[in-house]
Amino acid sequence: MILFEGRFMTTAVHGKPTILLVHGAWHGAWCWDRLVPELAAQGWHTLTVGLPSASAGSNETAGMYDDARAIRARLDEVDGPVTVLAHSYGGVPVTEAAASAPNVSRILYLAGFQLDEGDSLVSESGGQLPSGDTGTLPVPDNAAKALFNGIAAEEADRAVRRLVPQSIRSFSEPLTAAAWKTVSSRYIVCEHDEMLPPAYQESMGKRAHRLYRLPSGHSPFLSMATRLAELITEDADS
Question: Is the pTM of this model over 0.85?
């Protein structure tokens, strides 16, 4: 990696775009710790971003637009093309942010919400705003099974302990743009997902230019990081 005037110059070194990893609800950038070295072994330079809406309750007013601004700020640090990998809820602010980011060359939705303009997670769930005692949604009671099935129990428990409350506002703010209409997109269906039904993923994946499948639960970046990195690279090389 070369730094030039505060910006990342990466493509000349690696021959591949930079890849920005965007986590889902309740998570943080820590969730990519296993995937990052696997991508590095495939020749990628990786960046991560922490979404303001997942902040252990310290910023319960942060919404999807705040997340989109954080993503866009990270994209603005990079000179050269960027591939964005968006997991689960992360697909929503990525869809918003990437629409106005000229350096995004590809979006990979990993069991992600590939929604259209005017959509939000609330509208996708029938218009009911999730309930919570504060402005945040607590970590799901069944997180180990729903989010981390297919992962060794001890590792799943460690991951659950790192989850934080998610702002309710992030689920209610609607998209004002849909980047996948102008940016090449791929959808990765997680076939054994117990959080986001695979059939629903398939329906969203029809909006993508190419669809892939992994025999994994909701979090293949933990359960099969090597195969996920290989798939990302295979798609780029194709």
Answer: yes
CATH code of the domain containing 82: 3.40.50.1820
Other CB atoms closer than 10 Å to residue 237's CB: what's the count?
8
User: For residues 148 and 128, what is the distance between their CA atoms, to the nearest angstrom?
Assistant: 26
CA dist 66 and 52 (Å) reads 7
Distances (CA, A) of 234 to 16, 122, 219: 12, 34, 19
pLDDT on residue 132: 53
Mean pLDDT of 62-82: 96
Please count the structural domains in the chain: 1
Range of the domain at 166: 2-237
| CA distances from residue 208 to 13, 106, 114 in whole angstroms, order as listed | 29, 11, 8
- CA nearest neighbour of 49 among 84, 2, 16: 84
Bridge partners (DSSP) of residue 177 are: none
